[in-house]
Design goal:
Layout (H helix, E strand, L loop, with lengths): L1 E3 L5 H13 L5 E3 L8 H9 L4 H4 L2 E6 H4 L4 H16 L7 E5 L9 H7 L9 E6 L6 H16 L3 E6 L5 H21 L6 E6 L4 H9 L9 H5 L1 H17 L2 E5 L6 H11 L13
Helix pairs in contact: 1-2, 8-11
């Protein structure tokens, strides 16, 4: 299981990461939330406060929306430079998550992957996003076609699934991803694809927030939003599907205490996913 970091600045991220490591956390995702929070600066800030085995499992998100600079070519060069500099850190991350960002983009993930130079370093794996929960069939097929294009570049080493509540669509999406992985393996175009899937840890506050102002691209139905108990049941079933398909869980809810982390472990039935909470860091 992985945890997303929510610190609003570098100092807060450092404190949050150290606290979660002390609770037993081993893998973190670091979102790219704006032009004023460049991923490389965040990675550098974490270098001095986390042990190497955790730094290797810190996955920076790289948003082409926030990284866009003047032209597609300049933006591509910036991404290549980021990968090279991240790989040169004392303890580099094993992988990153490349996203286009919401809305229409002048330079998106597919274009970026296609335009990478042949000599581009593969020291850092590149993951891409996929949303299996889109309710509109035509839009869902476009999302699948885009994932096929991303994987078809040969640059992708991981797929990160968006969160949602329609478990039939999730199951169907997982079968599609497995088909893509099998096609890729059969063609010899790359190694195995690592799979990650997002979940929320439901709370009354979170459900109220998602009703009032849902996240872009997150589809949560009325049953999920009706109560914490209903949302937790959907979450448990989603995690069971993930387990059946070899998908590692990413928790996209902020964890602020050891008690909250213990609740996450119980809810997701992932007791073996953390070190003993009494062990030292």
């Amino acid at each position: 299981m992985r945890l997303e970091l929510f610190g609003k600045d570098v100092a807060a991220l450092r404190t949050e990461a150290r606290t979660l490591v002390a609770y037993g956390g081993l893998g973190f995702n670091v979102p790219h939330k704006g032009k004023d929070s460049p991923p490389l600066a965040t990675l550098r800030a974490l270098q001095g406060v986390l042990p190497p085995e955790v730094l290797r499992e810190c996955v920076p998100h790289y948003s082409l929306k926030f990284a866009y600079d003047r032209s597609a070519d300049v933006t591509r060069q910036s991404f290549v430079k980021f990968c090279s500099e991240a790989a040169a850190l004392p303890t580099p991350p094993r992988q990153l998550l490349l996203v286009s960002g919401s809305g229409e983009r002048k330079f998106d993930t597919v274009q970026c992957l296609r335009s990478l130079p042949q000599e581009h370093s593969e020291a850092i794996g590149i993951g891409v996003a996929f949303n299996p929960y889109i309710p509109d069939r035509a839009q869902r097929e476009r999302e699948r076609a885009r994932l096929r294009l991303k994987v078809g570049t040969g640059r992708v080493s991981a797929i990160w699934l968006q969160l949602g509540s329609d478990l039939e669509l999730l199951s169907d999406g997982l079968r599609f991803v497995e088909t893509l992985a099998a096609e890729r393996s059969g063609s010899g175009a790359g190694g195995p694809l690592r799979l990650y899937g997002s979940v929320f840890v439901p709370s009354r506050q979170l459900l109220a927030r998602m009703k009032f102002r849902p996240w872009n691209g997150v589809y949560l139905d009325e049953r999920y939003l009706s109560s914490v108990e209903a949302a937790e049941e959907v979450t448990r079933r989603a995690v069971a599907l993930y387990a059946a398909h070899g998908v590692e869980v990413l928790v996209e809810s902020a964890i602020r205490s050891q008690a909250e982390l213990a609740h996450v472990r119980t809810l997701l039935d992932l007791e073996g996913e953390f070190r003993d909470l009494d062990s030292s860091v």
